[in-house]
Amino acid sequence: MKSTTIIALVAFAAIGVGAIYLNARKSETMGHSTDTGDLSRLKPGDPIVSVRVPAGLSPQAQLGKRAFDAICAACHGKNAAGVMGAGPTFINRIYVPNHHSDYAFWAAVQNGVPSHHWPFGNMPPQKGLTKADVENIVAYVRALQKENGIK
Predict the structure, then answer these.
(1) What angle do CA 86, 103, 50 make, to 5 degrees?
(2) Are 36 and 49 in contact (CB under 8 A)?
(3) pLDDT tens track, the chain, 151 positions
(4) Range 39-147: architecture per CATH
């Protein structure tokens, strides 16, 4: 084989490996960004993000807000803004419905969630919530997300 052919094959292979690596990095982070700015600026207990609240909520989302405030807000913050040191915000593109379906919320309530996207501990299962409660909570969270550009 000629040296120019070998050089061309090596160059082609290097470009291919580079493209595969870059594509893997893109898909690894695409839709998985929890970028909310510099979290080190926050003190424990601070909200993680600022949340725009819809002018009105559906009756289901109103029920969900009551349940969220009673059960979820201690960790996930008022209006799902998150609480530094306690739990993540749901007003983040990581929770877009086609990535974290409504069922993901139900599974999290039933089974808990190991820490994976955020620097908080594991979420324990939440006792005492019915399927209807979770559906209402999801309606509330989805209304907040929509108002904040997460669709």
Answers:
(1) 40
(2) yes
(3) 666 555 544 444 444 434 333 333 333 333 344 555 677 889 999 999 999 999 999 999 999 999 999 999 999 999 999 999 999 999 999 898 888 899 999 999 999 999 887 888 999 999 999 999 999 999 999 999 999 999 8
(4) Orthogonal Bundle (1.10)
User: 83, 75 in Cβ contact below 8 A?
Assistant: yes
Q: Which of 126, 32, 131, 135 is nearest to 75 (CA)?
A: 126
d(CA 8, CA 6): 5
How far apart are the C-alpha atoms of 150 and 31, rounded to whole Å?
12
Cβ–Cβ under 8 Å, residues 129 and 71? yes
DSSP helix/strand/coil, 91: coil
Residue type for 36, please?
A: T
Flag whether the pTM goes above 0.85.
no
Residue boundaries of the structural domains of the chain: 1-30, 39-147
